[in-house]
Amino acid sequence: MYDKNNIFAKILRKEIPCEVVYEDDQVLFFYDINPQAKVHILGIPKKKVVDFRDFILRLDQSTVQYFFTKIIDVINGLGLDQKGYRLIINNGRDANQEVPHFHIHILAGENLKGIR
Ligand code: AMP
User: Is residue 75 part of a domain?
Assistant: First the structure.
């Protein structure tokens, strides 16, 4: 079940600030507070979805496609496609997913060998 008090829900309600990279009515991209690489962005859909499974199975295809297309737009907009990037989705306990609102990590800006 979705916890409406998770930290990303608070960010979406503007109760907690974040450094926005891109926002529209469906998605929010912002810088990770504890970056694991020179560029570390988090992308989230605005729908109340807990994890990857929830995101894929509960949302309609156009919403899912929109989210992934926006990832490309953000990456291209920052020129990160030139040298490469890594996308990470942590799903559930064994992956150490900390925040129960589906999100994707975009890591870039340096060679990512050894960074996960
Ligand atoms: P995960 O382990 O996949 O759930 O990742 C959660 C991420 O959220 C971590 O990389 C945290 O550094 C990041 N995070 C937690 N709180 C905030 C916040 N207030 N603003 C930006 N990023 C955050």
Answer: yes
